[in-house]
């Protein structure tokens, strides 16, 4: 049989999944946290933990001396049990058990709060809101000391800087956080805030914000002002607001209609400083350092320091910190002259984040970030590779023999299928948790994200140039860069508006079972990991996660209404 012109089967075989030993530590760590959070009033006896540690050490010594698969399995089970019990104990020590609020009456109280995080408000000159920790309380509320609390208070005439690590004295209505899993109160409970202080007034600033954080806040305000230079019409002011929200994560710069539009289209991730933003800025920093001929061994450390500065200027939101840790593990591999492994960097950053703040595991941002990035690594990247190899034009012609048009067609096809694969994977793996936390499913958003992800780096690059130029006093450069940014932002905004006009472009769904989103997301990531081998048939490797999602949507969700904007 004549096989001339056919591509050998070996050319489209995919690489096996990357080996990530940190997963053997991360998975039992998460299991231990889950146990501790669900039985907060059950204290793990130290004897159990000590027994598993001793057993694990003995099993390790035995395995080193005897080459037995059975003994290796036993050691693995003991190691997993040790990490699970250890993380259970660690979580119990780090995170205080929820207070007993059964007899708590809503009453006025004066408390001192050490601020962990401040939320952006439109009326930030008059009010301040955020999450903190009670460091002093009246006699009737002493049991609440060291408990996390949400506060919203009037600042009155106070001019003192208030932010991270400040301690403020507030008088207001102390009340339990309502148990509403789908609203803002549900988010607060995920953060461990079972108490709220509302209808409050700021009495005093007991401890000022550290000067370094004050400097970052001042730079943030200067950047915001720079991004408004040249915005003289209602339309340009709207575009400037979108650009500000995209670069700095200031969602208050968006109008209510814009927020609804981006939530309904499944593209609100553009305005949370996370992996996309940190990745774009990291890429720009890398290009600048390369043009400056900075030695390779110094590039990661200088780049990480500059990247951390950007994260701090944006307010150091948890999503930005998580993305910085991912960049840290990835760039550190370059600094140590090692080949970076994205899945290892992801697992390493998750370990660090969870050890620093175990409560992060329950936040929507943490779950979405790591689920989507894991999906991109174990599903999106191999799918991208397969599409680019399977549909590569002129693959029978050697690259050196291709003419200019053939090279352009090859490059364009490769880029198009790469964007489609990554966008499809991001939409696929975000769907279960997007329904859980936002009640929205945008089936065609992966097509919308292809042009948006292409335009976002251009818009953010222009905005960053504007912010730096305005900060340096070069207003004419900032104005020019702003107008360039607004061109790209206007294109993105128009694409979102046009997308929502399509029938059934956005639907409101809800899970029939509260844990449906978590379970389906874990099953999809687990399926991609188990099938990440070159011997797995292509139809199974790339068909199993979408099939799981389809089954979950058909049998696990219920339609609420169609969003029409």
Q: Explain this structure to me?
A:
The protein is α+β, with helices and mostly antiparallel strands and 565 residues long. It is built from 17 helices and eight strands. The chain has helices at residues 23-38, 46-65, 69-94, 184-190, 211-226, 234-248, 256-264, 275-291, 299-313, 318-335, 342-356, 364-390, 404-438, 445-471, 475-500, 516-530, 538-556; strands at 107-119, 127-136, 148-154, 167-176, 195-207, 440-441, 507-511, 557-562. Among the domains are: 23-94; 107-209, OB fold (Dihydrolipoamide Acetyltransferase, E2P). Mean pLDDT is 82; it is low at 1-14. Helix 2 runs antiparallel to helix 3 (69-94), helix 13 crosses helix 14 (445-471) and helix 14 (445-471) packs antiparallel against helix 15. A hairpin with a 7-residue loop joins strand 1 and strand 2 (127-136). Helix content is 57%, strand content 12%. Strands 1-2-3-5-4 form a five-stranded mixed β-barrel. Strands 6-7-8 form a three-stranded antiparallel β-sheet.
